[in-house]
Amino acid sequence: MEQTRPFEAVLARLDTIPGVDRRTAEVLVAEIGVDMAQFPSARHLAAWAGMAPGNNASAGKRKGGKTRKGSKWLRRALVEAGRGAARTKKPGKTAFAQQYRRIVVRRGPKKAAVAVGHAILVTVYDLLTRQTTYHEGDPSAFDERRRVKVRQRAVDQLRALGYDVTLTPNEEAA
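Now predict its structure.
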């Protein structure tokens, strides 16, 4: 308790992130510190921590890429924070919970937890560099972005089949 007293404000700031509790915040501060000047970007921090997605591609074909080795305590804390954020039961649901639900369908629960842990680490970097607290964005923005992508993909597929497409909004959907 005495050792964490100088970092009380930072710990309180990190505690605002969904999935990150006091103990996880202490592990984050102990492993990465509070001065983010040593990392030029959040990507550098994620690579150093071993939480960046690997990149294994050959001849234009993307193969599975594993994450690098990093601090096992930091990785364990971030994966647990990712799982905790996925279990958040707030009415609007958090962005991390939505990210977990999107990824778990395709990749499975372990890879989804690592991906959310990576997103939490990027958020930690942002909070520590800007000296701010976490504020949840609009959760409906993800749904709207997905709806736009699905609509555009459908239009592109129809045009590729030789159809002339014009979109008119349905009165029931509006």
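The beta strands are 56-58, 61-63.
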